[in-house]
Amino acid sequence: MTSPVAWSSGRIRFFRRPFHEYRLTERVALSQMPLFVTTILTAFLMWAFFPATMNNPLFIAFLVSQVAIMALCYLVPWERLPYTSFLVIPLLDFISIALGRQGGQESLTGISLLAVFPVIWLCASGYYPRAALCLSFFAPLAIIWVPLLIKGGFTGQDLARSLLLPVMMLGIGVSVSVLTLSMMRQQRELEDKDAQLQNNLHSSRRQESLLNTVLDTVHLGVLAVDADGHDVLMNRKQRTNHELARPKDIADPNESQLLVFGPDRKTLVPVQERPVRRAVLGETFTDYLVWLGSGNEQRAFVSTARAMKDADGKFSGSVIAFSDVTDLVNALTAKDDFVSSVSHEFRTPLTSILGYVEILLGDEPDESQRGMLEIIRRNSERLLTLVSDLLATRNGQLIVSPHAVDVAELVRSSVSSAMPKAAASGVVLAAAAPERLEAHVDGARISQVLDNLVSNAIKYSPDGGNVLVSLAQEDGHLSCRVTDTGMGMSPEDASEVFAKFFRTSSVRRTAIPGVGLGLPISKAIVEAHGGTIEVESALGEGTTFTFRVPV
Questions:
Q1: What percent of the chain has pLDDT over 90?
Q2: Separation of alpha carbons 248 and 97, rounded Å
Q3: How far is Cα 269 from Cα 291, in angstroms, rounded to an integer?
Q4: Which among 5, 226, 378, 526 would be 20 to 30 A from 60, CA to CA?
Q5: Residue 98 carries which DSSP code?
Q6: Is the dihedral of CA 193, 197, 198, 203 positive or negative?
Q7: Using CA atoms, how far apart are residues 92 and 71, in angstroms rounded to an integer?
Q8: Phi, psi at residue 542, to the nearest 5°?
Q9: For the chain, first and last CA: distance in Å?
Q10: Once rounded to an integer, what is the mean pLDDT over residues 149-157?
Q11: Of the candidates 146, 134, 145, 140, the residue with the CA atom closest to the CA atom of residue 168
Q12: Mean pLDDT of 258-285
């Protein structure tokens, strides 16, 4: 139910709370209050200027009825009755106003205009709109016509003269009804939107709870920042990481005060190069290694950042993930130290062997002994080269000495040397190279690459097959391909094949020997020449290695 005052403004301004929050009894009384107050003012005017009217029984009945109706508003338990029962009050008002008009019309004209209050009440209530409009016209009309009909002696002009008031009330009723229905429709839309917003809020809270649970479950530190660098989201693991990087004497450090070190674990990373700062500046990066903390508690983390964009494609923040790789870094360091140590241990006896071989060769041995000593020297030199390569790849360095070389001859020599092994394995080995192709490369190193690739092609064709070594010049580059029809690799294994000590899953299940260093060394040699090496493979169909170096 809506009162006339509440209809005009949405809420009664001098009330302490919105109209709809009052109890039904209070709303009924408040809706009747404007007519009741106006009646009191009318009675005061009559008493002050027309005291004789105060003795008119009909006017007295009007005043008493208004007091009685106001009392009914408070005394009747409207909450226990059917909801629209309160509409009987404006109907009683029409009767009361009719009494007041007949009793005070001679003294104060326009009392019938008081009918506007019950008209507004009925039409603003929103209930029975058609009946309310009918009453808006016929009730004021009855207030005027019924007394004329009772008295008699009226003319058509008398009846016509009284139509203005009912028409005016009907107009007011229509206006109030239209506005009320519009407001009710808007209210329903707002209620629907409110319900939708509540559902969205509930769904958002559920999604937020799920997201927080997932983020707290994963063993990764996740941090989200906005475009200004303020933290938006930080999971449990990242809070632990942040605490690890916090200096013990600073309760709330800024980014520049956090203990973030480089790969050497001693040099503080400049603020502009720290993962969070780089992410705030809009950078996208993957596997950026830093050390957090100090002393025995120091841990290694690889960080990855991805930028967020708003609807307009503008930078709105970043998400940074921190993964603890301390155990992996320590294991790789231990492995590198082991390789370095073993390589150094190999170098000393190999150098000694080569020295004694040189002495024996200097004593001019007979032909058969010289042949065996040459084999010992050649293989010792190759072992020493491999040891040097291990040390070089461990340190990330590999030295090449380019000079003019006939690479076609290197290909034929490598294929010729591998022929016995290929024949023993049932592999058909062939070379497709021009008569001569010179390039400015390190011949010994390129031979090492060719030997590694041809040896692998034969080794990983255990059931026989074909191996073809082709050489050509393409766009100013020397291009060499080693193609086999052997066991091949899966895409996952092919992506890791140049990693040190890596061996494919299919090879690990076989008795094929190897330690996984040939291809990493070959890659280092090719890259030292400024070239590239690639692999194409299909499991069970074969593999093609292609390396290219500038001519």
A1: 38
A2: 85
A3: 9
A4: 5
A5: H
A6: positive
A7: 13
A8: 125, 180
A9: 94
A10: 76
A11: 140
A12: 91
Decide: helix, strand or coil at residue 487: coil
CA distances, 417 to each of 423, 427, 545 (Å):
11, 14, 19
Q: What is the pLDDT of residue 102?
A: 87
- Give the orientation angle of helix 367-395 with respect to helix 518-528, to 10 degrees: 80
Q: How far apart are CA 70 and CA 26, in angstroms?
A: 11
Enclosing H/E stretch for 224: strand 221-226
Task: Return the C-alpha torsion angle 459, 461, 464, 466, nearest 10.
Answer: -100
If you search the block for the tokens 């309310």, which residue do you land on?
132
- Range scoring the smallest mean pLDDT among 31-40, 71-80, 334-343, 375-384: 334-343
**What is the sign of the dihedral through the CA atoms of 378, 379, 380 and 385?**
positive
Q: Which long-range contacts (CB under 8 A, 24 or more apart) does 467-470 make?
A: 467/422, 467/427, 467/428, 467/429, 467/430, 468/430, 468/431, 468/432, 469/411, 469/414, 469/415, 469/429, 469/430, 469/431, 469/432, 469/433, 470/431, 470/432, 470/433
pLDDT by residue (tens digit) across 384-417? 777 766 666 655 556 788 999 999 999 998 999 8
270 secondary structure, DSSP code: P
* Torsions phi, psi for 440 (to 5 deg): -90, 85
Tokens representing 25? 């009894």
- Amino acid in position 141: L
